[in-house]
Amino acid sequence: MKNRKYIATELFLLFVLLPVSLTLSYPFWIKGLLVLFSFLYVLVLMLRVERISLKIEKHLPWKSFWKRILLQFVGVAIITTIYVLFIDANKLFCVPLNKPKVWVIILLVYTFLSVWPQEIIYRTFFYARYERLFQNKKLLIFINAIIFSLAHLFFRNTLVIVLTFIGGLLFGITYLKTKSTLLVSIEHAIYGNWLFTVGMGEMLAFPGMESC
To answer: Fewer Cβ atoms within 10 Å of its own Cβ: the N or the C terminal residue of the chain?
Structure first.
């Protein structure tokens, strides 16, 4: 019981209080130290306590994964394309058509320096460390999605919060089904890179996505 209380408190401090605090006005260097300390703490937990391995699993359900992801992607592509056409048609595929080099660089940076670390922390680590607190798997996925959206509060963008919550639900389902960091990272990268491609990068306050 005592261990569960400690882990629950840890979850609240790292994944709720910290991201919320970053939206408040206090010195940047203190924010930097808090993030650095939290990252090092999570790293120690991953390597020394939970002993998480990031090796690629040998027998992954590739067929069922791609079938589900491609079906979901079609829906995402249709909805987001209509959204961009409705909000600002000039942005539709603006960056890949007018700034292809910038577009490629952004996709690579986003995939390897944003998606991969996020999925290691918010799915692989989170589920290994905190799944024991939840008997109801649906509640676990829901809480994880909320926490994932809280991590993006610093954008101060309602659209980002909504999209990351929806993404958190999808990624949580994938991770619980596969327990694969690789598969959930591929899914995350596909949806995220599509948003930048279709013309929502500037709407999501992503650097380098200014008007073409």
So the answer is: N
- Closest by CA to 151, choosing from 189, 100, 117, 202, is 117
Mean pLDDT of the chain: 92
Q: How confident is the model at residue 50 (pLDDT cuts 50, 70, 90)?
A: very high
Three-state DSSP state, 134: coil
Model pLDDT, residue 8: 96
Torsion of CA 129, 123, 112, 157, to 10 degrees: -120
Look up residue 174 and give its amino acid.
Answer: T
Distance of CA 187 to the CA centre of its chain: 10
4/207 Cα distance (integer angstroms): 40
Contact assessment for residue 199 and residue 92, using Cβ atoms and an 8 Å cutoff: yes
CA-based nearest residue to 205, from 150, 155, 152: 155
Which helix H or strand E contains 210, and what residues bound it?
Answer: none
| Alpha helical stretches, state H, the chain | 2-12, 18-21, 28-44, 62-88, 94-98, 100-110, 116-119, 126-130, 137-150, 158-178, 181-198
Mark residue 81 as left, alpha or beta (left: phi above 0; alpha: psi -120 to 50; beta: remaining).
Answer: alpha
| The Cα angle at residue 34 between residues 26 and 29, in degrees rounded to 5 | 50
Is pTM beyond 0.90? Reply is: yes
Helix (H, G, I), strand (E, B) or coil at 13: helix
* Closest CA relative to residue 170, chosen from 195, 196, 142: 142
